[in-house]
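Example protein
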Amino acid sequence: MTDLVHTLQDEGLREALAPYTLSGPLGHLLDAQTEDLGEGRLQVFEMSHLMALGQKHLVPILLYLFHRVEQRLETGTPSLVIVEEAWITALHSLFGTTLESWLRTLRKKNAAVVFVSQSVAGLSLNEEKTRVVDAKDGFDFLGVHFRLRPMRSNPRRLFCYRWPATKAMQSVRQKVRDAVGYDDRYSLDDKIRVLNPILRGWGQYFRIGNAHRHFKKVDSYVYTKLTNFLRRKHKRRGKGHREFPPSFFKKAGLYRLHGTIVRVFRTPPGERGRKAG
């Protein structure tokens, strides 16, 4: 930062950045030759003393920390971001809807956000997103559709089935369309290399449940898009099902969702045979 300020010709920019250089009061936070945040699995930022600096100095520091958090999440490693109660009000007052949008996109990077509160009474429900429904009518939550239905094996008993919601199906189809595209410049291996992480990540999220038919629909959709891609690329007529059967893409390394569903929930050791109560 100090080197940058010395090279600037604009006097206004130099004055604005001066507090964040080594000669300024915040230089020890935002200016250095190397960064010492580290790459440990646990990162804690105790920033209560920053609140006294005022919004002018607090905002750039928070923006930098958010930037570092986003960089850590780019690797796709499961992460947990914990925000204490005192910071919730401060962050919303400074960033508003920008913060809400940032939090919504974190789950796409395999991260979850936890807001910590010392008082349950201090929590409030979002009226727009809160409603009372009958489980038999079904409801969507975090991309999953839940519905209470009679069990197939014993219709006299009810079971809560769950499968990908309509929006989740639309989302994965859109990602497949974007990955395959409408060009024929790239090879099939390139397309599969982009598709596999999408399918694997989406399948891992929904594989515990009753998504068998939904997984087959996504596999069929991917097969259709890739078949059409090869037809365009090689100028073939017809639908291409004989020339490019599903086994062709399997040999090419395409990830399939079919067969990855997990339905069996094993009883924990020591619980077998234990009577209720």
